[in-house]
Amino acid sequence: MTRPATITAHRITLEICVDTPQGLLAAIKGGAQRIELCSALSEGGLSPSLGFMNMASTVSVPVRAMIRPRSGDFTYSSDDIGVMRKDILAAASAKLEGVVLGANLASGALDEDALIDLVKSARALGLKVALHRSFDIAPEPHAALDLAISLGIDTVLTSGGSKTADAGLSGLRALVKQAQGRIEILAGSGVTPQNAALILETGVTALHASCRNIRPFLPGRATDLGYVTPDLRDTDGALVAAFRNHLTHLELSHVIR
């Protein structure tokens, strides 16, 4: 007699990056299972304010704060690193789950000394650590992954070395194989419900997305002065919910027997 299928709840983690209080609440309502908390997603994500971190500490899912002191590259001065240490402390004081960070040398290789410093600071405060897509800048991804594992980093956010995750499928597949479950490979950049199944075929079990949409606004003085632009975006809870529902469908179509 065939044993009935046993379904595990939410085997695929959906992480949503947000940069506003409204976006945070929309992501939670839509079913995000983890939050990357940022400011200025238009700049690729910068460190959020302490007030935003404190607000995020009250939500029902794990939150990791972006630790990125400025826009641009990830080759940091000693002053930049000092600011990052203080932002890590702020994330711990807000009782968040973890932090998201990265650092590179001018060559593109991961800055081992800076990462040792920052990871040590985060671990001493009980925080989990994710390495963001500075990983994809590294010219030798397998050496970079070995370094991340040796440092005890929990998660690597990567597009498999390509501009988008669906263009980096072979790279993602190789990283998953190398990781052997020792570190979470989180696929990000251009991840949508339309390409999620293809990306998940690489073996990743966690996806990173923004689910942003044009934010409605009323014309006024703020618009006239350039503070509000027609392309201003924020997290759309309906898009998050649609993505989560699609992933649930994929989970149900791959039941464990």
Quick recap:
The protein has helices at about 20-30, 50-55, 80-95, 110-125, 140-150, 170-180, 195-200, 220-225, 235-250, and strands spanning about 15-20, 35, 65, 100, 130, 155-160, 185-190, 205-210, 210-215, 235.
Describe the model:
This protein has helices spanning 21-30, 50-56, 78-93, 112-124, 141-150, 169-179, 193-200, 221-224, 237-252, and strands at residues 13-18, 34-37, 63-66, 98-101, 128-131, 155-158, 184-188, 206-209, 212-214, 233-235. The chain has nine helices and ten strands. The strands form two sheets. It has an eight-stranded parallel beta barrel, surrounded by seven helices. Strands 9-10 form a two-stranded antiparallel ribbon. It has a single domain (13-252), classed as Copper homeostasis (CutC) domain (TIM Barrel, Alpha-Beta Barrel), CATH 3.20.20.380. Helix 3 packs parallel to helix 4. The protein is 37% helix and 16% strand.
Strand and helix map with partners:
Layout: E1 13-18, H1 21-30, E2 34-37, H2 50-56, E3 63-66, H3 78-93, E4 98-101, H4 112-124, E5 128-131, H5 141-150, E6 155-158, H6 169-179, E7 184-188, H7 193-200, E8 206-209, E9 212-214, H8 221-224, E10 233-235, H9 237-252
Parallel strand pairs: 1-2, 1-8, 2-3, 3-4, 4-5, 5-6, 6-7, 7-8
Antiparallel strand pairs: 9-10
Helix pairs in contact: 1-9, 3-4
Please describe the structure with a list of short key phrases separated by commas or semicolons.
257 residues, alpha/beta, TIM Barrel, 8-stranded parallel barrel, two-stranded antiparallel ribbon, 9 helices, 10 strands, disordered N terminus
